[in-house]
Write a structure and sequence with these properties.
Blueprint lengths: L12 E6 L2 E6 H42 L15 E3 L14 H7 L2 H4 L6 H15 L5 H21 L3 H19 L11 H19 L18 H9 L4 H8 L3 H6 L3 H11 L2 H6 L11 H11 L10 E4 L4 E4 L11 H4 E4 L1 H6 L4
Antiparallel strand pairs: 1-2, 3-5, 4-5, 4-6
Length: 356
Protein backbone atom coordinates (compact mmCIF):
# COMPACT_ATOMS: atom_id res chain seq x y z
CA UNK A 1 0.00 0.00 0.00
CA UNK A 2 1.25 3.54 -0.60
CA UNK A 3 3.09 5.36 2.09
CA UNK A 4 0.70 7.94 3.57
CA UNK A 5 2.90 9.27 6.29
CA UNK A 6 4.64 12.60 6.57
CA UNK A 7 7.10 13.43 3.76
CA UNK A 8 10.54 12.33 4.88
CA UNK A 9 12.16 15.27 3.11
CA UNK A 10 12.64 18.31 5.27
CA UNK A 11 11.39 21.66 3.95
CA UNK A 12 13.73 23.27 1.43
CA UNK A 13 15.54 20.06 0.37
CA UNK A 14 15.65 18.48 -3.07
CA UNK A 15 17.42 15.73 -4.96
CA UNK A 16 19.99 16.75 -7.55
CA UNK A 17 21.76 14.48 -10.05
CA UNK A 18 25.57 14.81 -9.90
CA UNK A 19 28.55 12.94 -11.33
CA UNK A 20 28.64 10.77 -8.14
CA UNK A 21 24.92 10.03 -8.27
CA UNK A 22 21.81 11.59 -6.74
CA UNK A 23 22.40 13.81 -3.74
CA UNK A 24 20.12 15.65 -1.37
CA UNK A 25 20.68 19.40 -1.25
CA UNK A 26 19.00 22.35 0.36
CA UNK A 27 17.50 25.30 -1.47
CA UNK A 28 20.55 27.53 -0.86
CA UNK A 29 22.93 24.86 -2.13
CA UNK A 30 20.71 24.33 -5.16
CA UNK A 31 20.84 28.02 -6.04
CA UNK A 32 24.62 28.01 -5.59
CA UNK A 33 24.98 25.00 -7.89
CA UNK A 34 22.73 26.63 -10.46
CA UNK A 35 24.86 29.76 -10.38
CA UNK A 36 28.00 27.67 -10.85
CA UNK A 37 26.43 25.86 -13.78
CA UNK A 38 25.31 29.17 -15.30
CA UNK A 39 28.82 30.57 -14.92
CA UNK A 40 30.28 27.44 -16.52
CA UNK A 41 27.83 27.61 -19.40
CA UNK A 42 28.54 31.35 -19.81
CA UNK A 43 32.30 30.72 -19.83
CA UNK A 44 31.81 27.95 -22.33
CA UNK A 45 29.76 30.24 -24.58
CA UNK A 46 32.41 32.96 -24.31
CA UNK A 47 35.10 30.41 -25.11
CA UNK A 48 33.15 29.20 -28.13
CA UNK A 49 32.67 32.79 -29.28
CA UNK A 50 36.39 33.45 -28.90
CA UNK A 51 37.24 30.34 -30.92
CA UNK A 52 34.75 31.40 -33.57
CA UNK A 53 36.28 34.87 -33.80
CA UNK A 54 39.78 33.38 -34.01
CA UNK A 55 38.70 31.02 -36.77
CA UNK A 56 37.07 33.88 -38.69
CA UNK A 57 40.21 36.00 -38.32
CA UNK A 58 42.30 33.08 -39.51
CA UNK A 59 40.10 32.61 -42.57
CA UNK A 60 40.27 36.35 -43.34
CA UNK A 61 44.07 36.32 -42.96
CA UNK A 62 44.34 33.26 -45.21
CA UNK A 63 42.17 34.91 -47.86
CA UNK A 64 44.23 38.11 -47.59
CA UNK A 65 47.48 36.18 -48.08
CA UNK A 66 45.96 34.44 -51.08
CA UNK A 67 44.82 37.78 -52.49
CA UNK A 68 48.26 39.29 -51.94
CA UNK A 69 49.74 36.73 -54.32
CA UNK A 70 48.26 38.80 -57.16
CA UNK A 71 49.28 42.13 -55.63
CA UNK A 72 52.08 44.25 -57.06
CA UNK A 73 53.98 44.10 -53.80
CA UNK A 74 54.39 40.33 -53.95
CA UNK A 75 57.79 39.03 -54.94
CA UNK A 76 56.37 36.35 -57.26
CA UNK A 77 53.46 37.86 -59.27
CA UNK A 78 51.32 35.56 -61.37
CA UNK A 79 51.56 35.74 -65.16
CA UNK A 80 49.28 34.08 -67.71
CA UNK A 81 51.02 32.11 -70.44
CA UNK A 82 48.37 31.58 -73.11
CA UNK A 83 49.84 31.14 -76.59
CA UNK A 84 46.63 32.21 -78.32
CA UNK A 85 43.24 33.72 -77.42
CA UNK A 86 39.88 34.23 -79.11
CA UNK A 87 39.08 37.81 -80.06
CA UNK A 88 35.28 38.01 -80.14
CA UNK A 89 33.49 41.35 -80.13
CA UNK A 90 29.98 40.13 -79.35
CA UNK A 91 27.92 37.34 -77.82
CA UNK A 92 27.16 34.18 -79.78
CA UNK A 93 25.58 30.83 -78.95
CA UNK A 94 29.02 29.38 -78.36
CA UNK A 95 30.64 32.31 -76.53
CA UNK A 96 29.18 34.90 -74.20
CA UNK A 97 30.56 38.40 -73.84
CA UNK A 98 33.53 39.94 -75.64
CA UNK A 99 37.31 40.18 -75.31
CA UNK A 100 38.79 43.44 -74.07
CA UNK A 101 42.25 44.93 -74.37
CA UNK A 102 42.92 44.27 -70.68
CA UNK A 103 41.86 40.63 -70.95
CA UNK A 104 44.09 40.07 -73.98
CA UNK A 105 47.00 41.78 -72.28
CA UNK A 106 46.53 39.58 -69.20
CA UNK A 107 46.16 36.24 -70.95
CA UNK A 108 48.80 36.42 -73.69
CA UNK A 109 52.30 35.31 -72.78
CA UNK A 110 54.11 38.65 -72.72
CA UNK A 111 56.33 37.59 -69.82
CA UNK A 112 58.15 35.06 -72.01
CA UNK A 113 58.06 37.39 -75.01
CA UNK A 114 60.34 39.96 -73.36
CA UNK A 115 62.99 37.25 -72.98
CA UNK A 116 62.98 36.67 -76.75
CA UNK A 117 65.20 39.18 -78.56
CA UNK A 118 62.93 38.97 -81.63
CA UNK A 119 59.87 40.11 -79.68
CA UNK A 120 61.43 42.50 -77.19
CA UNK A 121 61.06 45.69 -79.26
CA UNK A 122 57.51 44.67 -80.19
CA UNK A 123 56.47 44.37 -76.53
CA UNK A 124 58.22 47.64 -75.61
CA UNK A 125 56.39 49.50 -78.37
CA UNK A 126 53.08 48.00 -77.22
CA UNK A 127 53.76 49.10 -73.63
CA UNK A 128 54.51 52.60 -74.89
CA UNK A 129 51.25 52.85 -76.84
CA UNK A 130 49.26 51.64 -73.83
CA UNK A 131 51.02 54.18 -71.62
CA UNK A 132 50.10 57.03 -73.97
CA UNK A 133 46.34 56.54 -74.16
CA UNK A 134 45.08 53.09 -73.17
CA UNK A 135 46.12 52.73 -69.52
CA UNK A 136 42.75 53.94 -68.09
CA UNK A 137 40.89 51.40 -70.24
CA UNK A 138 42.68 48.47 -68.57
CA UNK A 139 41.14 46.65 -65.64
CA UNK A 140 42.76 46.74 -62.20
CA UNK A 141 44.36 43.32 -62.71
CA UNK A 142 45.61 44.36 -66.15
CA UNK A 143 47.15 47.54 -64.72
CA UNK A 144 48.99 45.49 -62.09
CA UNK A 145 50.13 43.07 -64.78
CA UNK A 146 51.33 46.02 -66.88
CA UNK A 147 53.54 47.28 -64.05
CA UNK A 148 54.86 43.78 -63.32
CA UNK A 149 55.84 43.24 -66.97
CA UNK A 150 57.42 46.70 -67.09
CA UNK A 151 59.49 45.84 -64.03
CA UNK A 152 60.79 42.71 -65.76
CA UNK A 153 61.61 44.70 -68.89
CA UNK A 154 63.65 47.20 -66.88
CA UNK A 155 65.44 44.41 -65.02
CA UNK A 156 66.34 42.71 -68.30
CA UNK A 157 67.81 45.95 -69.67
CA UNK A 158 69.82 46.47 -66.50
CA UNK A 159 71.18 42.91 -66.71
CA UNK A 160 71.91 42.86 -70.46
CA UNK A 161 72.94 46.55 -70.78
CA UNK A 162 71.13 46.73 -74.12
CA UNK A 163 68.15 48.74 -75.46
CA UNK A 164 68.63 51.41 -72.81
CA UNK A 165 67.31 54.35 -74.85
CA UNK A 166 63.87 52.90 -75.80
CA UNK A 167 63.21 51.92 -72.18
CA UNK A 168 64.12 55.43 -71.01
CA UNK A 169 61.64 56.85 -73.52
CA UNK A 170 58.99 54.35 -72.37
CA UNK A 171 59.43 55.30 -68.70
CA UNK A 172 59.36 59.00 -69.55
CA UNK A 173 56.12 58.58 -71.52
CA UNK A 174 54.52 56.51 -68.76
CA UNK A 175 55.50 58.97 -66.03
CA UNK A 176 54.09 61.91 -67.98
CA UNK A 177 50.81 60.05 -68.53
CA UNK A 178 50.53 59.08 -64.86
CA UNK A 179 51.16 62.66 -63.75
CA UNK A 180 48.09 63.80 -65.68
CA UNK A 181 45.97 60.77 -64.73
CA UNK A 182 46.71 60.96 -61.01
CA UNK A 183 45.40 64.52 -60.97
CA UNK A 184 42.07 63.15 -62.23
CA UNK A 185 41.78 60.47 -59.52
CA UNK A 186 38.16 60.08 -58.51
CA UNK A 187 36.97 60.30 -62.12
CA UNK A 188 37.38 56.54 -62.72
CA UNK A 189 40.53 56.92 -64.79
CA UNK A 190 42.77 54.63 -62.73
CA UNK A 191 41.86 51.65 -60.59
CA UNK A 192 43.10 51.63 -57.00
CA UNK A 193 44.10 54.01 -54.26
CA UNK A 194 46.05 57.12 -55.20
CA UNK A 195 48.83 56.11 -52.79
CA UNK A 196 49.40 52.94 -54.83
CA UNK A 197 49.95 54.96 -57.99
CA UNK A 198 52.17 57.46 -56.22
CA UNK A 199 54.30 54.52 -55.06
CA UNK A 200 54.44 53.21 -58.64
CA UNK A 201 55.52 56.61 -59.89
CA UNK A 202 58.31 56.58 -57.32
CA UNK A 203 59.40 53.20 -58.69
CA UNK A 204 59.49 54.68 -62.21
CA UNK A 205 61.74 57.49 -61.05
CA UNK A 206 63.98 54.94 -59.34
CA UNK A 207 64.20 52.88 -62.54
CA UNK A 208 65.09 55.98 -64.53
CA UNK A 209 67.89 56.74 -62.11
CA UNK A 210 69.22 53.19 -62.37
CA UNK A 211 69.21 53.42 -66.17
CA UNK A 212 71.02 56.78 -66.04
CA UNK A 213 73.71 55.27 -63.81
CA UNK A 214 74.24 52.18 -65.93
CA UNK A 215 77.84 51.53 -66.90
CA UNK A 216 78.47 49.72 -70.19
CA UNK A 217 81.20 47.15 -69.68
CA UNK A 218 83.91 47.14 -72.32
CA UNK A 219 84.65 43.78 -73.95
CA UNK A 220 87.71 42.02 -72.62
CA UNK A 221 88.71 40.24 -75.84
CA UNK A 222 91.60 41.68 -77.85
CA UNK A 223 90.50 40.42 -81.28
CA UNK A 224 89.41 42.41 -84.32
CA UNK A 225 87.19 45.40 -83.56
CA UNK A 226 84.82 47.45 -85.69
CA UNK A 227 87.52 50.01 -86.40
CA UNK A 228 89.81 47.27 -87.78
CA UNK A 229 87.34 46.47 -90.58
CA UNK A 230 87.70 48.00 -94.05
CA UNK A 231 85.82 51.22 -94.66
CA UNK A 232 83.45 49.52 -97.10
CA UNK A 233 82.40 46.98 -94.44
CA UNK A 234 81.96 49.71 -91.86
CA UNK A 235 79.62 51.57 -94.22
CA UNK A 236 77.78 48.33 -94.98
CA UNK A 237 77.10 47.83 -91.28
CA UNK A 238 75.95 51.43 -90.92
CA UNK A 239 73.47 50.95 -93.76
CA UNK A 240 71.79 48.21 -91.69
CA UNK A 241 70.97 50.59 -88.84
CA UNK A 242 67.36 51.76 -89.01
CA UNK A 243 67.54 54.54 -86.42
CA UNK A 244 69.35 57.80 -87.14
CA UNK A 245 70.10 58.28 -83.46
CA UNK A 246 72.21 55.12 -83.54
CA UNK A 247 74.23 56.60 -86.40
CA UNK A 248 74.80 59.79 -84.42
CA UNK A 249 75.96 57.78 -81.39
CA UNK A 250 78.26 55.69 -83.55
CA UNK A 251 79.77 58.81 -85.08
CA UNK A 252 80.71 60.09 -81.63
CA UNK A 253 83.08 57.17 -81.00
CA UNK A 254 86.02 58.53 -82.96
CA UNK A 255 86.77 61.09 -85.72
CA UNK A 256 86.98 58.41 -88.44
CA UNK A 257 83.48 57.11 -87.69
CA UNK A 258 82.21 60.66 -87.44
CA UNK A 259 83.18 61.23 -91.08
CA UNK A 260 81.46 58.00 -92.17
CA UNK A 261 78.31 58.84 -90.20
CA UNK A 262 77.90 62.04 -92.25
CA UNK A 263 77.63 60.13 -95.53
CA UNK A 264 74.76 61.68 -97.55
CA UNK A 265 73.79 58.39 -99.19
CA UNK A 266 73.40 56.83 -95.74
CA UNK A 267 70.88 59.44 -94.61
CA UNK A 268 69.11 59.45 -97.96
CA UNK A 269 68.37 55.72 -97.65
CA UNK A 270 67.14 56.25 -94.11
CA UNK A 271 64.68 58.90 -95.30
CA UNK A 272 63.47 56.73 -98.17
CA UNK A 273 63.09 53.74 -95.86
CA UNK A 274 60.96 55.43 -93.20
CA UNK A 275 58.99 58.00 -95.18
CA UNK A 276 57.04 58.21 -98.44
CA UNK A 277 58.13 60.34 -101.39
CA UNK A 278 55.18 62.66 -100.85
CA UNK A 279 56.29 63.31 -97.27
CA UNK A 280 59.90 63.89 -98.32
CA UNK A 281 58.92 66.43 -101.00
CA UNK A 282 57.08 68.49 -98.38
CA UNK A 283 60.14 68.75 -96.13
CA UNK A 284 62.98 69.48 -98.53
CA UNK A 285 66.03 71.28 -97.10
CA UNK A 286 68.62 72.58 -99.57
CA UNK A 287 72.12 73.64 -98.56
CA UNK A 288 73.98 76.71 -99.83
CA UNK A 289 75.69 74.52 -102.40
CA UNK A 290 72.34 73.38 -103.81
CA UNK A 291 72.51 69.91 -102.26
CA UNK A 292 69.79 68.23 -100.22
CA UNK A 293 70.53 68.06 -96.51
CA UNK A 294 69.36 64.49 -95.95
CA UNK A 295 70.44 64.33 -92.32
CA UNK A 296 68.52 67.46 -91.35
CA UNK A 297 65.56 66.30 -93.44
CA UNK A 298 65.52 62.98 -91.60
CA UNK A 299 65.17 64.52 -88.13
CA UNK A 300 62.64 67.05 -89.41
CA UNK A 301 60.57 64.24 -90.91
CA UNK A 302 60.80 62.33 -87.62
CA UNK A 303 59.17 65.24 -85.83
CA UNK A 304 56.32 65.40 -88.37
CA UNK A 305 55.60 61.76 -89.26
CA UNK A 306 55.83 58.40 -87.52
CA UNK A 307 58.65 55.97 -88.21
CA UNK A 308 58.22 52.83 -90.25
CA UNK A 309 57.97 49.98 -87.77
CA UNK A 310 59.71 46.67 -88.46
CA UNK A 311 59.89 43.73 -86.06
CA UNK A 312 61.50 40.33 -86.28
CA UNK A 313 58.50 38.59 -84.73
CA UNK A 314 54.97 39.86 -84.14
CA UNK A 315 51.58 38.65 -83.06
CA UNK A 316 49.44 37.09 -85.78
CA UNK A 317 45.68 37.32 -86.27
CA UNK A 318 43.66 34.63 -88.01
CA UNK A 319 40.75 36.26 -89.85
CA UNK A 320 38.99 32.89 -90.18
CA UNK A 321 39.09 31.78 -86.53
CA UNK A 322 39.44 35.25 -84.93
CA UNK A 323 42.41 34.00 -82.92
CA UNK A 324 45.36 36.13 -81.81
CA UNK A 325 48.58 34.16 -81.42
CA UNK A 326 52.35 34.33 -81.56
CA UNK A 327 53.91 33.51 -84.90
CA UNK A 328 55.85 30.40 -83.84
CA UNK A 329 52.88 28.80 -82.01
CA UNK A 330 50.09 26.81 -83.62
CA UNK A 331 46.42 27.58 -83.12
CA UNK A 332 43.32 25.43 -83.76
CA UNK A 333 42.55 26.80 -87.23
CA UNK A 334 39.68 25.19 -89.18
CA UNK A 335 40.49 26.80 -92.53
CA UNK A 336 41.72 24.74 -95.47
CA UNK A 337 44.71 27.04 -95.97
CA UNK A 338 45.59 28.53 -92.55
CA UNK A 339 48.56 30.53 -93.84
CA UNK A 340 46.36 32.61 -96.14
CA UNK A 341 44.11 33.62 -93.22
CA UNK A 342 46.90 34.85 -90.92
CA UNK A 343 48.28 38.36 -91.04
CA UNK A 344 50.82 40.14 -88.82
CA UNK A 345 49.52 42.55 -86.21
CA UNK A 346 51.49 45.70 -85.43
CA UNK A 347 51.42 47.15 -81.89
CA UNK A 348 48.92 49.78 -83.01
CA UNK A 349 46.93 47.08 -84.79
CA UNK A 350 46.81 45.09 -81.57
CA UNK A 351 45.11 48.01 -79.82
CA UNK A 352 42.77 48.65 -82.75
CA UNK A 353 41.47 45.08 -82.55
CA UNK A 354 39.71 45.91 -79.29
CA UNK A 355 38.12 49.20 -80.29
CA UNK A 356 34.39 48.64 -80.49
Amino acid sequence: MPFLGQDWRSPGQSWVKTEDGWKKTTKDENETNNNVLERKSYCKEEHDKENLILSINYDVAAKKRKKDLLNNNTKIPYFHKDKWIYVHKGSTKERHGYCTLGEAFNRLDFCSAIKDIRRFNYVVRLLELIAKSQLPSLSGVAQKNYMNILERVVQKVLDDQQNVRPIKELLQTLYASLCSLVQDMGKSVLVGNINIWVHRMENILQWQQQLDNIQINRPTNTGMTYLDLPVSLQLNIMHRLSDGRDLVSLGQVCPDLSVLAEDRLLWKKLCQYHFADRQIRKRLIVSDKGLLEWKKMYFKLCRCYPHKEQYSDTLQFCTHCHILFWKDTDHPCTANNPESCCKPVSPQGFINLFKF
